[in-house]
Each structure stands twice: as C-alpha cells, then as structure tokens.
Amino acid sequence: MTEKPNERLEQRLLKVISKEVRGKRVSCLRGFLRGLSCIFYVLVQLRLWLHKHRIIRAKTLGCQVISVGNVTVGGTGKTPIVETFSRSLQQKGRKVAILSRGYKSRKTPFWDKVLKKNERLPRVVSDGERLLLNSELAGDEPYMLASNLPEVAVVVDKDRVKAGKYAIRKLGCDTLVLDDGFQYLKLQNRLDIVLVDYTNPFGYGNVLPRGLLREPARNIKRAGFIFITKCPPEGAPELKAKLREMNPHAEISECRHTSKYLQNVYTREQLPLEALNGRKVSAVSGIAVPESFENGLRRLGAEIVHSAQYADHHRYSQQEIIETINQAAESGAEMILTTEKDAVRFPRIERCDLPVIYLRVEIEMLSGSDAFNDWIDRICFR
C-alpha cells in the first residue's frame, strides 16, 4: 500500500487524537494540540459572533437554501443523505442544484489564478440533464451525486454564493442544497441539516486539532433537522436524548446505511448481495472510517483475506490497483470489494485478473421518516 506523506501524517495524528498510541512524547504532543484547539475554538466562536451580529453580512439569493453538514470532520455518511434529500425535493417538483466545494478535485493551476483564467465560472459537473465532468475534475463526491441524480444539477466552486447565482440564472434552479454546508455562513435564510455519527458523535470531545470537532458540539443548536447516522437496528435512544437536550426544537431521525446491491466497477454488471456469502474477498477503501465498511462486508457473509486502507479521498494510481489485485490474488481472494465513493477514483486498467466490485449503500430511516416527509413538503410548497 502506497501512501502520500500527508496521508501518513493524517493517520498518525488520528491515532494520537484517539489515544490509540501512548507515551510521554505523545502526551506532550496532545498537550500542544490542546493549546492549538483553544486558539481554534476562539476563532470559530468569534466568526460565528461576527455573522450573528451582522458585522460580516451574509448574502440572500432569493430561493430556498438547505445545508447538509457535520459538526465533526470525517465520514458521517453525508453523501447518501444529500442524495436522498435532493432526490426527494426533485421528485416533488423542485429544480434542485447541489453546491459543493469539490474537496480533492483537481486544483486550478497557479498561473491561471494569477492571470484569472477559468475563474469566472464554477465547474458544472451536471446541468440536470448531462454528466459533464469526470471525478478528477469534479471531486469524487460531486461526481457520484451527479451520476446517481441525473435530473439534479451539481455545481462545484469554493465560493458557493457564486455557484448558487450561476445555478439560479443559468440552470434555472429554485432550490439549492449545500453539500457540507453547516459551517458555510455566507448564505442567509437557509435550513440546516446536521449529521451526527453514532459511533463517534462528538469527535473525542475536542475541537480541531486535539479532537475532530469543527466547532463546539453545543453549536448543533443551529440545526433544524438532525440525522443520527450509522445507528444499530435498535436505534440510539441515549444519544437522541442528549441531542434533544442540546437542541429542543430540531426534528431528529435515527438512520443507518443499508447495503442494496453489488456492481462491477468496470463492466457495470450488478450482482445481488448474496454473491458475497462465503466468498473470500479483498477490501480496499480510502474513506474516513474503513472499519465500518469492512464490518459491513463481514455481516454480508464475506471473509476478508486481504485489506488495503488508504486515507480519506485518496486518489488511486493505476500501479496501486494492479499491486492490490496481485496481493489479493496471492491471499486467495476471489474478488475485490470497495466503496462507491472509492470506485469513482479507480483508474482504468487494461487487465483485471479479479472482479472489482463496489457496494451500493443507501439510507434507511429507523425513526423520523414522517417528520422528514413533512419537512420536504414544507420546503416544496412554501
């Protein structure tokens, strides 16, 4: 497994934050990170205060704006929620555009920025009719959303005010969904949806860089709707009660990610989930919580004989895939399993000795589905 230096650093820091590693040096490092967290905390709260008192003014675009985001960094299962929400709005008659910053998409060359080339227009991944960009240019999550939502526009730009104006004026959209938008305060008059990961709801209890919180957990009070993701089948009553104390007014839904089917990355052939039962597989993932993916494969009856874990949003090279296939074959694997988010980052290869399959996952609501449908209706018929 080949990792870039920044990916190795990211994984080492995560082990320090989670107290997976111990020792005198590590304790000193955690103390240093705690000091940085205090500075970060003050800056975050100051920014919120400036926006709240309109010292920094937000923009109004004259249409419905919904943000879907987290209070923590890392994987909370946000993309399937964005997909479900956007599809529901589109099916109710809204012309929807998803606005994304395109994390880990190809950057604009430095001299193009200096000369202000290609900076006037945002990147349109999909105009609601056609898929226009690949995953490298768009970013893996915007590309995946555009592929799964053929009638929803997907626009990528760090400046989502500019992206929103473009979606309204050029694509005729009347509803904007901000992907990862809870901390994006430049757009006013919006509804905030926040996702909380049942397995690590408050990011080890500290803001960055000592913990994984983007802002203090109590700021979840800004949310109008809270999804508790990755719940066990019985739900999350204790976490739900705690969130209700933090935010008495928000609707709260417990949900989990449910596997739907398997699909070949290269041939697009679909297979039933039963095809995994009793099979020896290689698990390959570049996501925030690879353990959840691998545990899901085991629950479906697969035996993992080889595993390759990369940093979140890792962009695979052709050589890495070839090496992974060879290592998996040597380990006795019958197929290679990956996530849908990883699949869009897999390069084309000329020869594939093992089938490369991704697991299609969708959201299943365990509670709060009526409240969710009421929310959709209020948005669509406002």
UniProtKB/TrEMBL annotation:
* Pathway membership: Glycolipid biosynthesis; lipid IV(A) biosynthesis; lipid IV(A) from (3R)-3-hydroxytetradecanoyl-[acyl-carrier-protein] and UDP-N-acetyl-alpha-D-glucosamine: step 6/6
Q: Gene Ontology terms, cellular component aspect? A: plasma membrane
- Membrane spanning residue stretches: none
Q: Which GO terms describe its biological process?
A: lipid A biosynthetic process; lipopolysaccharide core region biosynthetic process
Catalysed reaction(s) here are: a lipid A disaccharide + ATP = a lipid IVA + ADP + H(+)
Enzyme Commission code: 2.7.1.130
* Residues that bind ATP: 72-79
Q: Name one GO molecular function term.
A: lipid-A 4'-kinase activity
Would you say which domain of life the source belongs to? Bacteria
Keywords on record? ATP-binding, Kinase, Lipid A biosynthesis, Lipid biosynthesis, Lipid metabolism, Nucleotide-binding, Transferase
Query: Per its UniProt record, what InterPro entries does this chain match?
Result: LpxK, P-loop_NTPase
The family note in this entry says: Belongs to the LpxK family.
Cited function? Transfers the gamma-phosphate of ATP to the 4'-position of a tetraacyldisaccharide 1-phosphate intermediate (termed DS-1-P) to form tetraacyldisaccharide 1,4'-bis-phosphate (lipid IVA).
Note the PANTHER family from the entry. Answer: TETRAACYLDISACCHARIDE 4'-KINASE, TETRAACYLDISACCHARIDE 4'-KINASE, MITOCHONDRIAL-RELATED
Name of the protein: Tetraacyldisaccharide 4'-kinase
Originating species: Tichowtungia aerotolerans
